[in-house]
Automatic annotation (TrEMBL):
Domain (HAMP): residue spans on this chain: 185-237
Signal sequence bounds: none
Record SUPFAM superfamilies: ATPase domain of HSP90 chaperone/DNA topoisomerase II/histidine kinase (SSF55874)
Chain ranges passing through the membrane: 13-34
Keyword tags: Kinase, Membrane, Phosphoprotein, Transferase, Transmembrane, Transmembrane helix, Two-component regulatory system
Keyword Iron-sulfur found: no
Record's protein name: Histidine kinase
Cellular compartment(s): Membrane
GO MF term set: kinase activity
InterPro entries documented for this protein: HAMP_dom, HATPase_C_sf, HATPase_dom, Sensor_HK_TwoCompSys, Sig_transdc_His_kin_sub3_dim/P
């Protein structure tokens, strides 16, 4: 299965908020730069209008006084009032020649703007663009009043404003991200409760329920989760009860079939063997040639009785209630060791006391072990099978390991793994089966038990 990379939701949302905030700061910075550029041009347009009006007044005064000495144009009076660092004033004649020019010196900036910013600003705003107003006297155009800012000064001032915004961004953005992350962590804290509930459901703890939440969305999830858990618990309980009844019915059918085979087929075979023995005695006196056929019939009947005895043992094992689980399993393992003729070695090991184990659990464990040993010996071709049964305070653990080859027939034959799984589910236990790639398999069964189980079993038997 392809696993896609997973990211923390809080980190992802915080990064998105940071990206949006940075974009907003960038938009605000652009807005301030555009506004500042417009303000500069509005200012130099106003100064150009003032210079043009002043020059027109000077020209009118010269003509009114009729002074032979003309000090037109004279930018000194207006420059004393409007000059600022980096500002330039000039009068350009009608022929395009600069007749007078004043420029205010600009101090060296403490932090010169980077070349990249200067190039970007020059390309976007064209700093140093001049503003010109015509100077008109008596209907004649004498020239133009020209005003502009030094591009370096204007770029430095823009960088100063942008730097202030960048400082605010550098301080505000990390703080904003931290606050957003903390708020998201607090808002998403209930998702950990939801995850814990799902993990409990995955671990077959169907009593898991989610607590109430403040958020409407999480409350809807809680209602669906709790309803699903309750429905699943009811369904599994009904399924376990149905499985238990089906298994009990199956065992009852096996016992009935075993009785029928023992009473009918077994007695018939015994009668055939007795008749063969009687016929053998008669043939020994009257017809010795029939002795071989009589002995053959007797041997065939004996072999059929042995096969029937094995089938009866599998259909109706020794009464676990009378012999106990330990003795029954020891007899089962001894029987397999005897029938395998050394081809398969079966070992069994017990840990704990099993005397107080309920009869229903003992019977189901015996059936599980019986089916597992049959699969390992007949279908997996194992040469060594190990069985370990341990009794704990609140559970009983069964482990069966073999060195057989992987074979699907072991799963499909007889009751198979499905039947064992159903028996374990009926006892509300846990079942796992793993087969190695190079052979061998491991079966694990864990059944919960408590002293109350034995008392309940005794009350049911008494009823």
């Amino acid at each position: 299965m392809w696993n896609r990379p997973r990211f923390d939701l809080k980190v992802r949302l915080t990064l998105r908020v940071a990206a949006v905030s940075a974009a907003c700061f960038a938009a605000i910075s652009a807005y301030f730069l555009i506004t500042a550029d417009r303000a500069v041009h509005a200012r130099i347009d106003g100064i150009a209008a003032i210079v043009a009006k002043t020059l027109e007044l000077q020209q009118g005064k010269v003509q009114w006084v009729n002074s032979p000495r003309s000090d037109f144009p004279n930018l000194d009076p207006v420059s004393a009032f409007v000059m600022t660092p980096g500002l330039c004033l000039a009068f350009r004649g009608a022929n395009g020649e600069m007749l007078q020019r004043f420029c205010s010196g600009a101090p060296t900036p403490a932090n010169a703007p980077p070349q990249a910013f200067a190039a970007f600003y020059r390309g976007l705003f064209d700093p140093g663009r001049e503003a010109a107003r015509p100077v008109i006297a008596r209907g004649a155009r004498l020239g133009d009043a020209v005003v502009w800012f030094d591009p370096a000064v204007q770029t430095a001032e823009a960088w100063h404003e942008a730097g202030r915004l960048m400082t605010v961004l550098a301080i505000t953005l990390p703080l904003l991200c931290a606050l957003v992350y903390a708020a998201l962590a607090r808002a998403l804290r209930p998702t950990q409760v939801v995850r814990a509930g799902l993990e409990r459901i995955a671990a077959n703890d169907l009593n898991a329920r989610l607590p109430p939440f403040d958020l409407a969305e999480l409350s809807a999830i809680r209602d669906v989760f709790n309803h699903l858990a309750a429905s699943l618990a009811t369904a599994l309980s009904e399924r376990s009860e149905l499985t238990r009844r089906l298994i009990a019915l199956q065992d009852e059918e096996r016992r009935h079939l075993a009785r029928e085979l023992h009473d009918e087929f077994g007695q018939s075979l015994a009668a055939i063997r007795a008749l063969a023995a009687s016929a053998s005695q008669t043939a020994a006196q009257d017809c010795p040639a029939l002795l071989g056929e009589c002995d053959s019939i007797a041997r065939t009947a004996t072999g059929m009785m042995e096969t029937l005895r094995g089938a009866l043992f599998r259909l109706r094992p020794p009464d676990v209630d009378e012999l106990g689980l330990v003795a029954s399993l020891q007899g089962l393992v001894s029987g397999w060791n005897g029938r395998s003729h050394g081809q398969t070695r079966f070992d069994i090991r017990f840990e704990g006391a099993f005397e107080s184990l309920p009869a229903s659990i003992s019977a189901n464990l015996y059936r599980i072990v019986q089916e597992a040993l049959t699969n390992a010996a007949k279908h997996a071709g194992a040469t060594k099978v190990g069985l370990h049964l341990a009794m704990g305070a609140n559970e009983i653990a069964l482990a069966i390991d073999d060195d057989g080859r992987p074979n699907d027939a072991a799963v499909k034959s007889g009751m198979g793994l499905l039947g064992m799984r159903e028996r374990v589910a009926a006892m509300r236990g846990r079942f796992s089966f793993t087969a190695g790639p190079d052979g061998g398999s491991s079966l694990r069964v864990v059944i919960p038990v408590s002293p109350a189980d034995g008392q309940l079993e005794a009350l049911e038997d008494a009823a």
